[in-house]
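Input record (one chain):
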Amino acid sequence: MTSRLRIPDWLLLLAFCAFFFLWKLSSIGLIGADEPRYAQVAREMLARHDWVTPTLGGIPWLEKPPLYYCQAMIAYRLLGVSDWSARLPSAFDASALVFAIYWFLRRFRSLGAVDAALMLASSAGIVGYARAASMDMALTATFTIAMLAWYAWFESGSSLYLAIFYASLALAMLAKGPVAPFLAVVIIGVFAAVQRNWKIGWRTLWLPGILLFCLVSLPWYIMVQLRNPRFFRFFILEHNLARFGTNVFHHPEPFWYYIPVTLLGLVPWTVFVLAALVWAIREFRKRDADGLNIFLVIWIAVIIVFFSISQSKLPGYILPAIPPGILLLGNYVRERFGQRPHPVVIVLHAVLSSTLIFAALLLRYSLLQHRVQWDSSAIIPLVVAIAAGTLVAFLFMRSGFSGVRVATIVPVVALAIALRFGAPVLDETLSARPVSEALSRLAPQQLPVAVVLVPRETEFGLQFYRNQKIPRYELGQVPAGEHLLVAAQGFRNAFAKNVPGRRIVYLGNFPGQRLEFFYVGQ
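The corresponding structure, as predicted from the sequence alone:
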């Protein structure tokens, strides 16, 4: 199809990466607690010209390794500090991941490379974290490249690929910590056991590669420990071992939590990935089974099982399971190119596509009204969604797997456009950026800002957008001088006792997040 359209593969992939990862990247301000917090850490490191010790509010922030921070510092230096440049490292990492998938399949499996790369670029988990200022995409990209390089070495025997494996694994350790090499060891070990060939593991232990891994990953860990003696206890013992083995960080979820999260992360390709998984497991019993499929299934299983055992669960942890799922689907499509999917698979995929488009078209109303209102406003989105699902089913019935690109990418692009134009509502209800802008309009003078009884997301968001430390009244952090106060709606009497005898002036409110603004005099 690409040859008929006369579009070079690299240009097509670049266009899709730009559309899914970069277009309207800052249409929604930084959301959650992590995005603004990580963006602010990078800003403070750049201001101090310090590439070793992360700080937040001038205090060492040793929860995460430095790869994202260093990438963001480079983006800030080149493009200035903004939420767009804070998210740019993840968009870059996701693009590198897409091209790595394309290169690997093109080099080792010939057909289906473009389709698999486009599937990855349009999967929900990759798109979501490619547009977020976080470490998850950096880990996923570097870990995936490492594992692909290892399998490339396994098939070709080239030491160059083994060197890339060790270098990428070192970067993955700088992205999220020792979890990356641990998972790599488990995946390779299980693969060697299934293949009944323990020499695979011993041959992987290549001294030049181990030295390269140490050269890339260890200098930062050594320097940060020398400058911050509590780093080992805080990062390794608390934020790795304790996070895995206990619920100390209050992220409890049931054991099966990552099953639906993984399925959602694979949207809109979920149905086909499940079909590919069933196909690959059935192929295990054959003597000529493709070793890559076995490797990919083990990779997916190890990631899901490992993080399911963890007592602390967050959606981003499972992101490294998405690329092997898409790679497995790429192999599945390649094997069945020209054939027609099972009718049940077609129907389920069409229903999923319709549901996604319907939800996207009603996003604005559901966010504003906190429910779906089944009236005339829902009729047009419903008709459009049904039409899109019918079109997807028709294209698959007519063209089979050879039409997978048009059959799914077109409605996915439509879905992405609908979500982008719903961004203003998301920004108004989820991000601290419009809150900061409203504060600036109500009180143009650049006064300090404090908060009381607001979510942590608002506190850290204001810290980034105001570029100042945000004290909290409920922690006894009441500024001595005049300042602005952002409070939860309806709590004036509750916080007034914290500032007895001081002048309190109501400035206005922010209905989208149920906040009120006050001026507090000396």
